[in-house]
Amino acid sequence: MIITLKKDSGEKQIDNLVRWVKSLGLDVNVSRGNNTTILGLIGDTSKVDIDLVNSIEIVEQVRRIQEPYKAANRKFHPDDTVINVGGHLIGGDNFQLIAGPCSVESEEQIIAVARAVKAAGATVLRGGAFKPRTSPYAFQGLRDTGIHLLLEAKKATGMPIITEIMSIRHLDLFEDVDIIQVGARNMQNFELLRELGRLKKPIFLKRGLANTVEEWLMSAEYIMSEGNGQVILCERGIRTFEPYTRNTLDLSAVPLVKEKTHLPIFVDPSHASGLSRLVSPLSLAAVGAGADGLIIEVHNDPEHALCDGAQSLRPEQFAALAEKIRVMLPLVGKKDIK
Ligand code: PEP
Ligand code: MN
Description:
Number of strands: 14
CATH architecture of the largest domain: Alpha-Beta Barrel
CATH topology of the largest domain: TIM Barrel
Low-confidence stretches: none
Helix content: 25-40%
Order of helices and strands: EHEEHEEEEHEHEEHEHEHEHHEH
Number of domains: 2
Oligomer: single chain
Structural class: alpha/beta
Number of helices: 10
Bound molecules: phosphoenolpyruvate, manganese (II) ion
């Protein structure tokens, strides 16, 4: 249920209303926008008397929300959520480029790629340390060492870092990681989501391989319902009947998600297509669709990459793409990358 308040509502009256709602055993999310204040009621609102609420002086309108996601719902929070990662803003009219290798392989590799993507305009460095591989015999990532090497690259370049968590048992290792990624395979690992919801750190939530937009937003809701509102969504392709590409990029999810939620949304054209030659056109399409950023795999030697070489751009290809993206940004109402 959402309660929209009248423009001139006083702080004291708002406080009284919030206290009364809480006394009914409900949680309240107070969203103060430029024009109106909105109270989002979370919990079992079936017993709330709508007529009674409507009769309160400062109440403009009361509506029940049909969607099962509440905190993530744009009706609760009409303004875009903007997240600050090491001084770089994510969401709203900002645009960010996250780039780096699929996996951290060595100190030389991660630092070389970090320097190259930073010079090309990337603002956040990616690199997998714990890798979710289909085969237990495939390279599983450098694990703890991978995170230490990412931290070295962060020190060398000043770039904030993002890396995937696969188990809550590893959480201590993520203390200095700037954004924690939840991979597609863990999108519905609800225990993991709940634990991440207790952190004060941005969570990058990738869409599951075969999940609907509503299921994805419900996963965001798991994180938010524990108190962590810093969720960034990422469309990374879904599984369809098409075998030419690794997945099928669901670009319609971008404007749709923008309508349904206030959370930022990124696109991952690398895992969506699995083919480096498709990464540039899909990236530009994602910018056109209104994405808040891209996460792109870049490797300095894709032929010898330990993971996902076929979908990785070389640094110079990434630099050329970043230039084209910059040309497009004003057309979609986004500020330059910074
Ligand atoms: C990744 O980003 O390295 C990754 C494994 O992605 P996804 O979870 O989207 O497959
Ligand atoms: Mn990968």
